[in-house]
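Training component of the fellowship. As part of building independent skills, the fellow (R.M.) carried out the full modelling exercise for a liganded target. The chosen ligand was S-adenosylmethionine. The inputs are recorded below so that the supervisory panel can assess the work.
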Amino acid sequence: MTDFNEPEAKLEALLDIINSSAHQAIAEYKKTGHGVPSADATTFHSLDLTTDTLALKKAIRLLEGAYHQLSSILAPPQHTVMNLVFNYNWACTGVAFRARLADVLHQHPEGLSVDKLAEAVNLDKVKTARVLRALTLMGCFKEVERDIFANNRLSLILKSANNVGCYTKLHSQDGPKFAEVVYETMIDEEFSRSHELDKAPRVCAFRKEGMKDPYYEAMENNQEKRDVFHKAMLGQSEVLGASAVLHHYPWNDISSVMDVGSGIGTFSTPLAKMFPHLRIINQDLPKVMAQAQNAWEKNAPETLLDGRVEFIPINFLEDAPVVGKDVYYLRHILHNWPDAEATTILRNIRKAMGPNSRVLIHDCVMFHTLQRPGVGTKGSSVAPEPMLPNFGAGSHNTYQTDLTMWFAFNSKERTLEELEIIGAAAGLALTQVYDLVDTMLIEFRIAGQS
Ligand SMILES: C[S@@+](CC[C@H](N)C(=O)[O-])C[C@H]1O[C@@H](n2cnc3c(N)ncnc32)[C@H](O)[C@@H]1O
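Fellow's submitted model of the complex:
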């Protein structure tokens, strides 16, 4: 048994985890028959385009968690703490996306001089070069010759048609604006102790700009915002690897699925394609439903032919969904809402459930960095020692998403215990947890059933 009280034993164990998890990741790429990705690749690897990357993401969770823990022990603390704040990658990514640098470079696979690139997007060439150099340092874009840049596998993500590109836009434009006022809201009398939706940092930031903006209502009335948002939701699903749910839940044992707050069908469209036996109902706000119908007609017309897919508008804060479905699925819904509203949504669903119905909550789940042995994980993964039990920086996406929910909605990602509490308040009991790395799928049934 390794003695983790020995500092050097800890370092060696972290190195072992880095080594073994990197080999696991390499093996996942090789399994596709297309070898490992290269830093010089100018196209996506076939694994980048699949919906089940769960095994790869499990390896990366270990790799990133162990690497950051090791580096934070070995590097001077001044260096590590400054790394936390000294980081404008979001701003450079925002410039690259908004100026469509990757779109222009796509026309020049062999590379384009920064002068011509800057001219094509009407920006200053010296400043454009500085943005590109900062991103190239992180592996995004490639300097093929001095001052000649080309796309690579990472920068392809920043093309304007890419869903994840749209998601980067939300985070590089809106996110920093809300984050900037967080401390201010924490000491302001009106905002500081409130967990109400209308006291989110977002509200404070918009108020400063003289704007009132109830998020989803504002979007209902703005088609362009809706288009970007729903594309970004597709991107979010890719980033979090949430489509693994298509492969790791027993959909063959289910007949009907209600996608509550479906958006344009990020989850339900691939579900309908993969499982043609399923009857699917999409429910969201009226204008989103109209947009969803258009998206389905364009992307999955074959699934609409026999009437097994329906679109029914709903306000889930006021109405119960259609009754008696096998599964009521909520992806990235409850995390948008403080506890009172989240409980109302679950209570409305509970009213519609039959004895065999289950609710699937699909969100990020928070775990403490100190885990008492055997308590509270409900079968979800715990990192091997000496890593932090919640995988530390390997859970970066979960913890940043939690902060995003706070800054934008005064809401949160929840622990399993917190989900159990709001479930119980709606008459539901937790029955199973599926660990999908950045997100978890948590199954609830009517409480009191055996
Ligand atoms: C974060 S998005 C998630 C969309 C989708 N489930 C996904 O995973 O991509 C939240 C969704 O909730 C919908 N929504 C917000 N308020 C709603 C309400 N009161 N009633 C019904 N849907 C609502 C939004 O329109 C949006 O599509």
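The panel noted the following from the submitted structure. Residues 38 and 153 are 9 Å apart (CA to CA). Residues 7-85 form one domain.
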